[in-house]
Amino acid sequence: SSLSTFLGLLKSNSKTCLLFLKKKGDVKLDYCFMADAKEIGFEVGKKDYKRHNKNDLIDFVLHFNSKIQEIKTTEWGGRSCFIKQSMLDTARLDAKYYFMKLYTNYIISSGANVKKLSDIAIITQPITNPSRNPEHEYYYLEIPDISEDTGVITNIRKMKGKYINYNKVKFKTGDILFTRLYPDKNRIVIVPEEIEEGVCSNEIYIIRPKNSKEIDPYVLLATLKSSMVTNQVKDMIAGSSSSRPRLSYDLLKEILIPVLSSDKNQEIAQTMKKIIRVHWESSQSYLGGFKAVMS
């Protein structure tokens, strides 16, 4: 699959997925070959195609003919693999989805102590309509206010309910905010103590650990930003250039989370609290100084 493959030919910026079917009669196939291309031998996204030497499709053909069942990654990041027919389901039929399933199977078979996110945390979206309390002041958080790099709230404002349109998701101190829109940008944050409650976009899930002794909120935050989770998330995302990529609730709840010992849980929690405290105080100090200079 590739974005803008047919922009020059058909004037379409749609993400493209090619499905090849071959009638095999009574022959039973045990595997299905799937691949996700990053490069196709042409510059994409322009009206005129220009050839270059980056082409995952050549490696895909070599892999298909080799019958090697393990995942192969090309020089330019394309991936291909033979998927067991028994793994196929009706949810999705794109390669990335099945790369994710292979990865989660690998995690489980490795013997790692993991649980599904829904088993250790509540995932919710409590809805409120601020405009019904027009004079009440709300902390209002927008998605760009969450840093992609640090996962810290870089800015938050207070607004009266009458200036906040539509329903919003309500959050409180200690909640983990997980942005489902463009989740690969890793905009995940924990609400600091200074903010008792606030409202944010409907594109954000609220995640709360069921038992902080099993997994502290700060440990869960660190885990959600870890490579184990981001490697799952990047292949769960669904969406096109028009609908924008999102992570559905049904897939989010299935994410595998490592469960640590009690001592390790407390150790990481303390470290994360210190790191986030420093980032929060620094960002607020910067904003305060900037406002003072500009006033």
Can you offer a commentary on this structure?
By secondary structure, this protein is an alpha+beta fold. It has eight helices and 18 strands. The chain has helices at residues 7-10, 56-66, 95-109, 117-120, 217-224, 227-233, 249-252, 262-294; strands at residues 2-3, 15-16, 31-36, 40-42, 51-55, 72-73, 79-84, 114-116, 121-124, 127-128, 137-141, 157-160, 168-172, 176-179, 188-190, 197-200, 204-209, 256-258. The strands form six sheets. The chain has a five-stranded mixed beta sheet, with no helix packed on it. Helix 5 (217-224) packs across helix 8 (262-294). The radius of gyration is 23 Å and the shape is globular.
Question: Topology of this protein?
Answer:
Layout: E1 2-3, H1 7-10, E2 15-16, E3 31-36, E4 40-42, E5 51-55, H2 56-66, E6 72-73, E7 79-84, H3 95-109, E8 114-116, H4 117-120, E9 121-124, E10 127-128, E11 137-141, E12 157-160, E13 168-172, E14 176-179, E15 188-190, E16 197-200, E17 204-209, H5 217-224, H6 227-233, H7 249-252, E18 256-258, H8 262-294
Parallel strand pairs: 11-16
Antiparallel strand pairs: 1-2, 3-7, 4-5, 6-7, 8-18, 9-17, 10-13, 11-12, 13-16, 14-15, 14-17
Helix pairs in contact: 5-8
Helix percent band: 25-40%
Number of distinct helices: 8
Shape: globular
Q: What summary fits the major beta sheet?
A: 5 strands, mixed
Sequence of secondary-structure elements: EHEEEEHEEHEHEEEEEEEEEHHHEH
Question: Could you give the order of strands across the largest sheet?
Answer: 10-13-16-11-12
Secondary structure class reads alpha+beta
How many strand segments? 18
Strand content: 15-25%
Low-pLDDT segments: none
Mean pLDDT: 86
Cα(first) to Cα(last) distance is 51 Å
The radius of gyration computed from the alpha-carbon positions, rounded to a whole number of angstroms, is 23 Å
